[in-house]
Structures are given as C-alpha cells and as structure tokens.
Write a structure and sequence with these properties.
The chain is of the alpha/beta class. 30% of the residues lie in helices and 25% in strands. It contains nine helices and 15 strands. It binds NADPH dihydro-nicotinamide-adenine-dinucleotide phosphate (NDP).
Amino acid sequence: MNKQWILARVPPEGMPQAEDFELIDSPLPSVAPNQMLTRTIYLSLDPYQWGRRRRGEELPRDICHGRTVSQVMQSRLAGYAEGDYIFNTNGWQEYGLTGAGISNFGYMHPRKLDPDCYPISTALGVMGMLGLTAYAGLLIQCNPQPGETVVVAAASGGVGQIVCQLAKLAGCRVVGIVGNQSKMGFVLNDIGIDACVSHLSDNFQEELKAQCPDGCDVYFENVGGKVFEAILPLLNHASRISLCGLVSQYGNSHDRDPRSVWKEIGSETFAKKGIIQKDLFVGDFVEKYQDEFFTLMGNYVRSGEVFYKEDKWEGLEKAPEAFISMLVGRNFGKTMVSVSQDTSM
Ligand code: NDP
C-alpha cells in the first residue's frame, strides 16, 4: 500500500491547519511503458506549496504537491535503472510514478543524483531550488560589491542561510533578521555573518538601524510586513532589492496580492532614492543559470565554504505538522520530511 496525504478541503483564510490534510492508503500504482515507480526518501516542504493550495491550483482529493528525493524501484523508462537516486516530484506520498503521462508540475525535471558528490538530501536545498534562488536573487539580481551592507530577512531559513554565505563570500557586511535566539546564534557563530537582530524584539527597528550604520545597499526580501517597513528608511540611494518572498503575508486574505501591497508601501522610497527592485521567480533562472550555479555551489559545498542546515522531520505522518511549523517560523533550516530510509549513506 501507498500512504498519501491528500488535500482535504479548500483551505480557509489564514495559515494551514491540520484539518486541511487527510492521510489515506492507496494501492501501489502499476508502471506503464516510459514510466518508473520511485520510493520517496525526502519530501521538501516549501512556502510556495501553501500558495498553490490557496490559489486553487491544488483541489480537494489531490495528492499534496511537493518535490522529493527518491529511489527508483521499478523502471520502464530509458536512462533510469532500479536503485538510481533521483530528484523528482512525488508529492506527499510514499511512492510515486514519474515519466510519460505523469504531471511533474515543476520546472526542474527528474534529475539523477550522485551520492558520491553530495548527500542526496541537498537536492532539496543548497544544491537545488533553494540554492538557485539565493544565487539568482543575490548575485544576479543585486550584484553585491565588497564592503556593501547586505540585509537578509529570514536569515537562518533554507534560502536565507545560503544568501548570507554568498554575501559574505562576495566581501559584504551581512546583517541577518531572524526570530529567536538560537537562530541568532546559528547565523552569527556557525555561518559567521556580521550582525543579527530579532524581528520579535520590542526595539526591532532601532536595533536594525544600529546594525546598519552605513545604511543598506542590498536587501534580500523573504518576509515582508513589519520587517520590510523597518528596512525601508535604511535603504541607500541606488540600493537593490530582490523580492524573493513575503512569508509573513501568506496567511492574509485574498483581497489584495501581497506583492502589490508591498510595492505600494515601498513605491515612494524606491522612486525618491532610485532603488532598483527586482521580482524573483527561480524558474526564470533555470535554463540560463542552472549549469553555472551547480558548478559554483558544488565547489563551495565540497570545499565547506558554504555550509547548510537541514530541519528533518521523521515520517510522512509528520508532513502537515512540519509544514505548518515552517510557515510560522518553528523550523530551523531547510525543512524536509524523511519518508523512508536514506540508503545512499
Ligand atoms: P524558510 O526556511 O526561510 O522558512 C520560513 C521562515 O520565515 C521561518 O523560519 C521564519 O524565520 C520566517 N517567518 C515566518 N513567519 C514570519 C513572520 N511573520 N515574520 C518574520 N519572519 C517570519 O523558508 P524558505 O527558505 O523555503 O523560503 C524563504 C522565502 O523564500 C519564502 O518567502 C519563500 O516563499 C521564498 N521563496 C521564493 C522563491 C522564488 O522563486 N521567488 C523560491 C523559493 C522560496 P524566523 O523564525 O527567523 O522569523
């Protein structure tokens, strides 16, 4: 049998709740020509999955979408053999089909993984979409220069921790924004950024200002809301912003698109100071930049210059709890679920 999490209902307003999901058992699917059956090893949990559900791109009774690292159990697809490890899109289930006639949703197609190069779980984080997001938003869109101040929202998270490290490697002064003290200790001591403030502090705005004595030249936006409002007065003339995500707004009502609201709040400052603001969608960078990203990040990860922290939850049953926790900041690093044994190690 195959355990699957399906969407139980059209999500109401606000953040996800346990009642949005239902765990069911289904028979294992049979494998048609040009398909393969894979066993999910790691399931990635990402904020965008909530957006899909809220926008109705996923409907009640659909298997919840999610990118995965899997092992091939049975293959009728040329180029893939039993035992291969792959990056694919099984969704929130123990086993899934990949290949002809199966929608893989995403812009990153099934990709073979070599466990001798990197731990296979990194395909969901630093060596996958999150790493490319950090690379594209910071290095390509914002072009940080040595000595500049880079401020990173959600600095300990999956994307944020990589942005912080790339900015340090570019010679910048890096200021992180996080929630709690342990995340602050991690970004300061383990990642080695220059300063960090908590958005939960009563004096958040003043503390952020104090840590940016020369203002902010590059802002990597993951959060929005009061974090964005605090950074606005600190933005320097001709500073650059990558609008990556607005996780604090994902529970808002659908009356207004959070990105439009964000731009409206910033528009006067952007115009007055000649600020360059770029929207980020990682899918736009795959074709042109994927190869150079893999080379650069692969070297950094192998040499230990880029370090990554994963937040692994044990067992598919935990997927909704882990997902909800991640959206409200109770995760610590790249969030994923260990669905079955990682035999590559
Ligand atoms: P994270 O691992 O960063 O998890 C989300 C983090 O957001 C939490 O850990 C929490 O950190 C912070 N957070 C949650 N709620 C709030 C709040 N109300 N105020 C302030 N901080 C909050 O997730 P990811 O790395 O997966 O994603 C980070 C961002 O990148 C998201 O906005 C996501 O949508 C975006 N993204 C965009 C892509 C693109 O193509 N544009 C691609 C991939 C991701 P803390 O406890 O420190 O506050």
